[in-house]
């Protein structure tokens, strides 16, 4: 959550307390906020709903730890949704091609973690730890509000071609991951990547770029 969510967050916690004939002091609300601010507001709301709907726990006033427990079982948290998008792209597109995600925080996190190519070197045994690192870093970026991010993430082919001037023109546009309109906004607003040729994607290249859209159920 961001600071702008604080008012709605406190209203949500106060309403929960009222259902259990409790009242929340400003200090108690601050403790709740500090414990849960790493999560998106919809995830917190869903965690509270799941607690109250649980026949074994719903009659008791929840603690932040109870909410976190139920958040772990839902995909409403933005970090979990973002990792699902990355995982799908790795498995369906691979790291040979460059990629442009529709979420600037994904680009920023993956660059910090070594880039798109490095992600493809991880084993299945390492994958759960990679996921956890990504989710923690992603939440950190979302809490910042503003941050720098690369236009796209170079793949193996682009990194290889960029090493020789004669092959620079052979660099293909990145595969657009998710919403193509949002992906283009990231391309236009991002800074240059660390290892690419830093060229602009033209209208013709954008229209000809491959796309990996969201799964049908994600748009439902």
List keywords for this structure.
single chain, 220 residues, mainly alpha, 3 strands
How would you characterize this protein structure?
52% of the residues lie in helices and 4% in strands. It has helices at residues 6-19, 26-36, 41-53, 64-71, 78-92, 104-112, 116-119, 127-144, 156-161, 180-189, 203-208; strands spanning 99-101, 175-177, 211-212. It has a 3-stranded parallel β-sheet with strand order 1-2-3. Helix 5 packs across helix 8 (127-144). The chain is elongated, with a radius of gyration of 21 Å.
Secondary structure topology:
Blueprint: H1 6-19, H2 26-36, H3 41-53, H4 64-71, H5 78-92, E1 99-101, H6 104-112, H7 116-119, H8 127-144, H9 156-161, E2 175-177, H10 180-189, H11 203-208, E3 211-212
Parallel strand pairs: 1-2, 2-3
- Outline: elongated
What value does the Rg take, in angstroms? Answer: 21 Å
Helix content: 40-55%
Characterize the biggest β-sheet. 3 strands, parallel
For the termini, the CA-CA separation is 24 Å
Number of strands: 3
Question: Summed up, what is this model?
Answer:
The protein is mainly α and 220 residues long. The chain contains eleven helices and three strands, in the order H-H-H-H-H-E-H-H-H-H-E-H-H-E.
